[in-house]
Amino acid sequence: MRTSTDYLASLEDGRRVVVDGEPVKNVVEHPAFSPIAHTIGRLFDLAADPANNMQAEDPATGRAVNRLFLPPRDAGELTDYRRAAQLWATETHGFVGRSPDHVGAFVAAFSRHPEAFADDRGPGKDLAENVRAFHRRVVENDLYVSYAIIPPQASRTTTEHAWEGDFIQVGVAEERPDGIIVQGAQMLATGAAVADEILVSCIKPLQAQDEDFAVSFTVPVDTDGLTLYCRRPYAPVASSEYDYPLTSRYDETDALLVFDKVFIPWENVFVYKDVPGLRQQFFGTGAHVLGNWQAQIRFATKLRFMAGLAHKVAEVNGVEKFPGVVEKLGELASLVSIVESGVLAAEHAAESDDQGLFRPGARALYGAMGLQSEIHPRVIGILRDLAGGGVLQLPASVAELRNEATRGHMDRYVGSPGTPAEERIKLFKLVWDAIGSEFAGRHQQYELFYAGAPFVVKGYAYRNYGYDQPLAEVNDFLASYSTHGTEAAR
Ligand SMILES: Cc1cc2nc3c(=O)[nH]c(=O)nc-3n(C[C@H](O)[C@H](O)[C@H](O)COP(=O)(O)OP(=O)(O)OC[C@H]3O[C@@H](n4cnc5c(N)ncnc54)[C@H](O)[C@@H]3O)c2cc1C
Question: Which residues are in the HpaB/PvcC/4-BUDH N-terminal domain (predicted)?
Fold first, then answer.
């Protein structure tokens, strides 16, 4: 299986990643991307070690492969999948949202549903075979796939066909016998700068007039004409691991994708000028459920870490037994438990669909997801509350501890009973990186938006809850009495 050495070597290609107006020569050596590339490499090493039980027999070849790239077929495989996803998430404490298992889950579910890609409207190509072959490539080569499935923000009052200017959203500019030429942009692809390929599609509802933009395809990151414009990277400003322990390891970067007449061979096209086909791809295949279940496993892992931080801060400050603080830690425990329970309830309610994909229960999954935009800010709020000004009563950097002339003041004034200054500062710097640094601010935005704006995610919860049953219960009750009924006993 692929190791970090293989993965890092593969990133030294001709990819065009732009930072500060300049193309990056080699992402593996650049301070913005090297840390996250090494973090992803560690994930591959974990999977490659059989002791971690992340491998499963590939039904197609009999070879041991990463189980996170295979579609779960029964309850046992789904549980093993969760444990493997948890292992990867724990390696990054949930701070890497788009590890290779996220889009890997989408592709695994696609592979189980060739009928969703059957080409009865498109160009007469075997699009279902393209999806199957791509899945094989992901499984056999341990590919890290990122995705860009949202159009540029431009205007949300309408969709691409009504925007000013041609090809703002990426779409088909030309059809050729061997493939298509695409032109335009897609909003954001997290992790793409250090990924192998990008799945480009559109999950936002389009209209019939947007047909040219109703495409789904995959593109290697080093493809000619593709440029990744990364938002300001945070890792390079992390002066040391001690000062920015999260930023310095987990800044996974987000990039605007620009396609300048990019050739996509037919083999890489999954949906072609098919507006309903785009939605079918995500929602008819179980991909959205499996991919977002992976995301909730990751989210629960991160929240547990935040709860641990909050408890430790309270202990260090000697307030953990105060009734008011116990109440806050209790609320935190409840919030984390909601997400943990949502993950397990979705697993418990999982069922095999008509193509043999063992899908996590949508009601439990989207129920937990619908509250993410409330839970995450509240968890951050409690951690901020407990940390007080401790996150600012900190030296500018580790230098104050290394310098003999300043170390004495640190040791005398910044320690706590039982916690020497060096450890206390270490803890509070970690807390700041989780709640207050630029990395933390981006994470707040990520948790609110990665699966769509909160109103979109709550829409998933609404549609998958199954309101028929509660409505029937209310209607039955209303039908059980009338104006002719007996008077209530007083
Ligand atoms: C850190 C980060 C990483 C991301 N990574 C990826 C990635 O890897 N791949 C990817 O494809 N995308 C990614 N995204 C993009 C993400 O998918 C989008 O941000 C998300 O889908 C929401 O779309 P939007 O940002 O255009 O918000 P909008 O749709 O513009 O919504 C913004 C706000 O406008 C209001 N609003 C808009 N429309 C309506 C409406 N119809 N009704 C009511 N209110 C409305 C709401 O208040 C809403 O919260 C990422 C985003 C972030 C923040």
Answer: 3-271
The ipTM estimated for the assembled molecules is 0.98
Residues 6+ apart with CB under 8 A from 112: 71, 285, 286, 353, 355, 356, 357
Ligand 1 lined by 449 (C-beta under 6 Å):
yes
- Per the CB < 8 A criterion, the answer to whether 353 and 72 are in contact is no
Reported as a single tens digit per residue, the pLDDT across 164-212 is 989 999 999 999 999 999 999 999 999 999 999 999 999 999 999 999 9
Atom number, ligand 1, closest to the C-alpha of residue 191: 8
Which amino acid residue places its CA nearest to atom 16 of ligand 1? Answer: 450
- Rounded to the nearest whole angstrom, what is the distance from the C-alpha of residue 452 to the centroid of ligand 1? 5
Per the structure, the complete domain to which residue 458 belongs is given by 286-473
Q: How many angstroms separate the alpha carbon of residue 149 from the centre of ligand 1?
A: 11
In a domain, 484, yes or no: no
Kindly state if the Cβ of 190 falls inside 6 Å of ligand 1.
yes
What's the gap in Å between 323 CA and the centre of ligand 1? 39
pLDDT at 416 over 70: yes
CATH number, domain with residue 233: 2.40.110.10
Instruction: Quote the pTM value.
Output: 0.97
User: Which residues have CB under 8 Å from 97's CB, separation 6+?
Assistant: 190, 252, 295, 298, 446, 450
Name the residue at shortest CA distance from atom 43 of ligand 1. 455
Which atom of ligand 1 sits closest to the CA of residue 454? 49
Same domain, 174 and 307: no
Do 353 and 443 lie in one domain? The reply is: yes
Instruction: Indicate if ligand 1 lies below 6 Å from the C-beta of 98.
Output: yes
Residue at 482 is within a domain = no
485 pLDDT band (50/70/90 cuts)? confident
As a whole number of angstroms, the distance between CA 33 and CA 25 comes to 11
What are the pLDDT digits (tens) for 76-103? 999 999 999 999 999 999 999 999 999 9
